[in-house]
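Hi R.,

Here's the chain you asked about this morning:
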Amino acid sequence: MRRPDVAQLDAAHALLERLGEEHGLSRLRHGDEFGEVVADVADGRSYFAVVAFEEAVEGRLGWRPAVVSSAAPGARPGRIVGATSELV
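And here is the predicted structure, written out as tokens:
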């Protein structure tokens, strides 16, 4: 399974946001690790929604981000995926 780099995540931000909405994920941000996305997971959604999102992205783009819930211990969200500034 291929992990995306920062440029691939940013280039696909519109699709990632749409798929995120469908799977209960929002505020997609870059994580500390290569190919990692930190996301807010909607109440009532579980790890299965995160995996379904990862699989949907892989099916469409050929690479699979590693998604971490922003509520997870040690999660370190960075810049919003697709944003052009650190201030977003």
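One quick note: The first helix runs from residue 6 to 11.

Cheers,
M.
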